[in-house]
Amino acid sequence: MKNGIDNLDALIFTHHHADHIMGLTDIRPLNSKQKHPIAAYGSQATLGNIRKIFYFIFDVPEHLQQYYPQVDLRLMNDTTDICGLTFHPFTVFHGRMPVTAFRFGKTAYITDVNHIPEEHFKLLEDLDLLILEAFRHEPHISHYSLDEAIAIASKIGAKQTLFTHISHDLDHDKVSNDLPESVSLAYDGLKVNLSL
Known about the structure:
Blueprint: E1 10-12, H1 18-21, H2 28-34, E2 38-42, H3 44-53, E3 71-75, E4 80-82, E5 85-94, E6 97-104, E7 107-110, E8 129-133, H4 146-156, E9 160-164, H5 172-178, E10 183-185
Parallel strand pairs: 1-2, 2-3, 7-8, 8-9, 9-10
Antiparallel strand pairs: 4-5, 5-6, 6-7
C-alpha cells in the first residue's frame, strides 16, 4: 500500500520459509479489485508446503471466495513464461535446503543462499542486474555473509548488483560507503529499470 501497488500480475516463490510467504493473505484486496486469482509460481515442494500452510484458502466454496486470498498455484520447474517474460529457474542451496533462483532477460534473483552450484554460473553470464542476498558481516550456516556476497558478485560480474535479505546488523549508510562501485544495498520501496 505504501508503494502504491494496486495490481499484481503474478507471484514467484523461491521457497516456503515464513519470511518469504506469510504476506500471502495480504493479496486479498488485489483479488477483489482484479476479480480473479493471482498466478503463483514455485517448485513442487514449495507449492506443496504453501498448500499445507495456507490450507484454509484452498477448496473454499465459491460463495465464500471473496473473503479469502485467491491464488492459482503453478509449477515452475523448467523455463516458464510469466507475464510475457521468460524465466529460467535453477536451484541454489540455503544450508541443505534447495531454493529456487531465476534469471529473466538480463536480470537474476538469488536469495536465501550460501551455495550456488558451479554449473549455474554459466546461466549468470552477461547480466545487467544481479539481485543477491548479503545477510550480515559474520559467516552464517545458510546465508552468504557480506564478504561472501561481494566475492560472488565479483565472480558473476553483473553491471549492477543489489544486495537484499539484509539483516539489521548491517548499517545501511556505512556498508553502502564501503561497497564496490557496481554494488549497492537494496531498500524498501526501491524501483529498478530492468533490461529485458
